[in-house]
Amino acid sequence: NFTQQPHLAGTQENLHLAEQIQANWKAFGLDSVQLAPYEVLLSYPNETSPNYISLIDERGQEIFNTSLYEPVPAGYETVEDIVRNAYLAGAKGLILYSDPADSCAPGVQPYPDGWNLPGGGAQRGNVLLLDGAGDPLTPGYPAKEYAYRLKEAQSAANLNIPVHPIGYHDAEKLLKEMGGAPAPDDSWKGQLSVPYNVGPGFTGTSSKRKVRMHIYSFKQVRRIYNVIGILRGATEPDRYVILGGHRDSWVFGGIDPQSGAAVVHEVVRSFGKLKQEGWRPRRTVIFASWDAEEFGLMGSTEWAEIPSPDEGFEGRSLFESWYEKNPSREHKGFPRINKLGSGNDFEVFFQRLGIASVDKFSSYPEIVEKFYDPTFKNHLAVAQVRGGLVFELAEAVILPFDCRDYAKALNSYVDIIYNITMKHQAAMEVHKVSLDLLRDSVKAFSEVANDFHHRLELVDVHNPIEVRSWNDQLMFLERAFIDPLGLPGRPFYRHIIFAPNSHNKYAGVSFPGIYDALFDIDHKADQEKAWEEVKKQIFVAAFTVTAAAGTLKETL
C-alpha cells in the first residue's frame, strides 16, 4: 500500500508512510529502526491559488489558460541548467514542457492506452541551482533543528526567475503562433505541429498577445524523516553495508520511487527471516528509506544464478539476458553498468565521501501492472540481485572488490579523454599539453593492482587481523580518489574519477576535471589560461591515481 495516497516530502502522509515502514521493519526482526528527522526548506504549491500560464490580448484579457491539473499524473527529472541559462540570457520566466520527440517512444500510445507521456502530463522535478545536493539553507551540514541557516536570499533556493511546467498539448497552443527567427536547425525541432520559431513574440493577428505567468508557490522549512534500520554484524559490527531507496514522491509514486522501495522492503523482510532462523551478518547492514531524496544501491556479482524474467530468455540466467541485451563496450563478456551521475541519493556517498556505490521511471501506479511488469517478475529479479549483493558484501570474509577491474576502467577512461583531445591536437602542441603523465600513472596503478591481487591469494582468512588489514585497503581505495578541494567550480563533487556531467547531471563522466576543462575550449576567450587549466587537471588526476595506487601497496 505504498502508493495508496500522494506522499510529498514534508507532508503528514509521508510521515505516516515512514511510521508504517518503521513498524514493518521492526516486525521483520531488525535490531533497531529509528526515524531520523531533519528540518529542510521545501517548495509547495498554493492549494487555493494554483500556478498556471495564460495568453493575454492587447486589452489584457486572458484568452487561453493552461490546465490547472493533469488529467493523469506523470513524473520526470530536473532541468537546472535550462533555468540557469535562461536567466543568464535575460529571460523573465521559464515555461517547461516535454516534447514528444524527447519523451515519447515511436509506435507507442500515450497513457492510458500505452506507456508514453500523455499530452496533459507535465514534467516533474526541481530546479534548485545548488552545487551538489541537500538543504539549500544548510549547505555542507546536517539540517538539524539547531543548525545555522542561511538567509533564503543568500541560498541556492533564491531562484531568480519563475519556472512552471505544462503538458505538450498546452505548449502546442502557445508555440503554434510563435514569431521571431526560425529554429537554427532540425535539432531544435520536436514532433508538435508548430514551426518551432524561437521568438520573441507572436506572428500575424496574435502579434500583440503576451504570455503571463501566474505563480503562487511558497517555500517553507518542513520536517522530513529518514527511516534507518540496523542489523548488527557479528564479527565486524563497525563496518557497514548500506541499502536504501527514497520514499517520498511527487504524487502516488507507482514507479518512482515505490518500485524500488518495494524491493528494499522485500530485502529487509528476507534478512529479517534469516535472522529469526539464527543467522547474523558478518558486517552490519543498514537499511534506509530516504525522505526528500533519491537513493539507489544496486548491482552485483551474485546475479548469475537468478532466472531471467525477460521473454525469450526463459531457462537462462539474468546475467545472460542482461549481457545479450546490453553488453559492455569496455569489458568483453560482461553486461554494461553505467557510470554514476546524479539525481539519486548515492551522490553524497560516492561523489563526495568516496564510498563505493552502484545505481538501481512515471507516477501512474497501475502502469507497472498494466505495461511494465504485469506479473512483477522483474521486481522479484531486482530484489534477488539487490539482496544477493548486500548478502555478499556483508558476509564475504574478503570484500568482493577486484582492483584490476578498476585499473581496466581507468585505462578506458584515459582513452575517452584522448579521443576528446584528438580534436585539439594543434592547440595541444602549441600549449605543450600531453596526457603522458596520466597514462603513466594509470599504468603504474595497473601494475600495483595486479601485484595486490597476487598477494591477496596468499592471505590467511583465519587471521582476523590480517583479514581486517586487507579489507581496509580494499575499502579505502575508493576514498583515495577524493580530492578535499573538490572539482573546479563544483566543490561538493570531490571524486576525481567520476562526477555528474556539469552540463547534464543525470549523466556521469570520467576524469570530470579534465572533461570540464576541455568542454567548449575553442570558444574560451583566454586560450592560454584555458589550456593551463587543462594541464592542471591532468596533473591533479595523475597525482590522485598515483596516490590511490599507494593504498594498495604492501603494508609494513
UniProtKB/TrEMBL annotation:
Residues 433-553 form the Transferrin receptor-like dimerisation domain. One of its GO terms (cellular component) is apical plasma membrane. SUPFAM superfamilies: PA domain, Transferrin receptor-like dimerisation domain, Zn-dependent exopeptidases. GO terms for biological process: proteolysis. Residues 226-307 form the Peptidase M28 domain. Its cofactor is Zn(2+). GO terms for molecular function: aminopeptidase activity; carboxypeptidase activity; dipeptidase activity; metal ion binding; metallopeptidase activity. The keyword Zinc applies. Gene3D superfamilies: 3.50.30.30, Transferrin receptor-like, dimerisation domain, Zn peptidases. InterPro entries: PA_dom_sf, Peptidase_M28, Peptidase_M28B, TFR-like_dimer_dom, TFR-like_dimer_dom_sf. Keywords: Aminopeptidase, Calcium, Carboxypeptidase, Dipeptidase, Disulfide bond, Glycoprotein, Hydrolase, Metal-binding, Metalloprotease, Multifunctional enzyme, Protease, Zinc. Belongs to the peptidase M28 family. M28B subfamily. Aminopeptidase with broad substrate specificity. Has lower activity with substrates that have Asp or Glu in the P2' position, or Pro in the P3' position. Lacks activity with substrates that have both Pro in the P3' position and Asp or Glu in the P2' position. Lacks carboxypeptidase activity. Lacks dipeptidyl-peptidase IV type activity. This is Aminopeptidase NAALADL1.
